[in-house]
Write a structure and sequence with these properties.
The longest helix has 46 residues, at 155-200. The protein contains 6 helices and no strands. With 201 residues, it is mainly α.
Length: 201
């Protein structure tokens, strides 16, 4: 399977697709900050899916599928809210808010859990709910921000670039989060997400 994936990747990168130009013939530079939000989302999603099930069993003593279902359901439910907020306040402002929450929210949750002596189940489900709410906005609002002020001829180029940024984050996320969780458990996972949010911010 790995060999097949590598061969497909080699063939994909060998393809040469001419870059779409603007009507005036000048290449369009994409919004790097919006691409960074896609990478942060990939980091969060892939890191959570890869590492949390292990922590759920070993540290929280919970069935991981319920937490992951909570992430998916909350992401779908809150995407409408984040979309309306982006339409009213602007995509840049909402992405900035989401990255700010990602940077400071995870360790805040962990600190509150310790201070209030919350049970592991409450901390686990609370963290998953928090990440689900963030995930509901990071991808669609970040992509909306990327498309702002772009001509329609550049939408395909922007979509592919956003997917690559997401893919980069999803490659780095499980490795970084897994190493941190190996040495510091759930605190390591949450701290890694905070660092990723701070870097993206």
């Amino acid at each position: 399977v790995a060999t097949g994936a590598i061969l497909l990747a080699v063939f994909a990168f060998r393809l040469r697709v001419p870059e779409i130009k603007e009507e005036r013939g000048l290449p369009v530079s994409l919004n790097f900050a919006a691409l960074t939000s896609g990478a942060a989302y990939g980091f969060l999603e892939a890191g959570l899916v890869a590492v949390f099930p292990v922590l759920a069993v070993q540290e929280f003593h919970l069935p991981p599928e319920y937490c992951l279902i909570a992430v998916i359901v909350l992401a779908a439910a809150t995407s409408v809210f984040w979309g309306r907020a982006a339409a009213q306040k602007g995509a840049k402002a909402i992405v900035t808010l989401l990255l700010f929450l990602l940077a400071f929210g995870p360790l805040t949750l962990w600190s509150l859990g310790r201070a209030l002596s919350l049970s592991p189940a409450v901390l686990a489900y609370g963290s998953c709910a928090f990440f689900g709410i963030l995930a509901g906005g990071m991808y669609p609002v970040g992509f909306t921000w990327l498309l702002e002020k772009l001509p329609q001829s550049q939408y395909g180029h922007a979509s592919g670039s956003f997917a690559r940024a997401y893919g980069l984050g999803s490659l780095v996320g499980p490795l970084a989060t897994g190493l941190a969780a190996q040495f510091a458990g759930s605190l390591g996972m949450l701290a890694t997400f905070s660092v990723a949010g701070a870097c993206a911010l």
